[in-house]
Amino acid sequence: MGKISDALERRRKETALKSEKHPLAVPERIVEERSPKIISKPLLDFTGFSHKLVVVTAPDSMDAENFKVLRGQILFPQKGEPPRCIMVTSAFPGEGKTYVAANLAVSIALGINEHVLMVDCDLRRPSLHKMLGYKRAEGLREYLRGERDLPELLVKTKIDKLSLLMAGKPAHNPSELLASSAMREFIREVKNRYDDRYIILDATPSQVTAEANVLAHNVDGVVFVVMNQKAPRETVRRSIENLGKNKIIGIVFNGYSKSYKAYDKYYKRYYK
Ligand SMILES: Nc1ncnc2c1ncn2[C@@H]1O[C@H](COP(=O)(O)OP(=O)(O)OP(=O)(O)O)[C@@H](O)[C@H]1O
Ligand SMILES: [Mg+2]
Asked: Least C-beta-crowded within 10 Å: which of 4, 29, 70, 264?
């Protein structure tokens, strides 16, 4: 009797040990994130977040609060499902696309459940990597040219649940790459592969490059940034029409004025 129970006990311990060595299969995405290919990316030097990443560097500011409002409007639309693949663009350069894309993406990733993948689709003057504290490295360009697989290029950022695909090395044919069927395929692939993530694309200006209008066809929604006193009203109207009115999920009026600054101080006092 004693021998049998000893044998049973031994068997129980062996089984327990075996199942410790082979834990339950984990979903594909988590396996990928732990794969050496992604872990190798933290070897990139982290130089610190840009101070323009206000949702991290100034979380109590009114700007950061505005991004939380934008996040809420995107994640909880009045009608239908929230758009999962969102492009940020503007009519002209320098209107704040990267500023909005980065802060919006981080704001979503700071939520309890949401995972975000940011993609720098500005192959001409990429800067998303700087906002997140990295030097330029391989990314979308290398993927579109078939030189690398996606998991090799994704950067796990210093913000939990936020990964980044940089633009990559300088490309001499950015329009062709972004308007290619490979790019269409890329968007389809990331949407399927990372089906629990929001995907935020930082794009080029729609009035001076061809690619933003093409990309708009492949995303679920577009956030259009208008810098105060930059794009004339008529240009904004035309840009929105070209992108497709039905794709516009929000217009961000980006501006900076003394009165706005004063209100920011008031805001901090009032809410803290
Ligand atoms: N609301 C803001 N508050 C403070 N700085 C801002 C704001 N919006 C934009 N900026 C700054 O203005 C500059 C241009 O912004 P940004 O790079 O985001 O524009 P962009 O539209 O992405 O430009 P590009 O067309 O060159 O990609 C940057 O230095 C950015 O940090
Ligand atoms: Mg930019």
From this structure: 4
Query: Is the CB–ligand 1 distance for residue 90 below 6 Å?
Result: yes
State the first-to-last Cα distance of the chain, in angstroms, to the nearest integer: 71
**What one-letter code names the amino acid at 155?**
V
Nearest-atom number in ligand 1 for the CA of 124 is 27
The residue whose C-alpha atom lies closest to atom 4 belonging to ligand 1 is 52
Confidence grade of residue 7 (pLDDT, cut at 50, 70, 90): low
CA–CA separation, 57 vs 249, rounded Å? Answer: 27
For residue range 181-201, what is the model confidence (pLDDT) as tens digits?
999 999 999 998 888 899 999
Phi (first) and psi of residue 88, to 5 degrees: -110, 125
Collect residues with CB below 5 Å from ion ligand 2. 97-98
Our answer on whether the CB atom of 99 is closer than 6 Å to any ligand 1 atom is yes
CA 113 to ligand 2 centroid distance, Å: 27
Q: Does the reported pTM lie above 0.90?
A: no
Give the whole-angstrom CA distance, residue 138 versus residue 164: 11
Ligand 1 atom nearest the C-alpha of 225 is 21
User: Would you place residue 31 in the very low, low, confident or very high pLDDT band (cuts 50, 70, 90)?
Assistant: very low
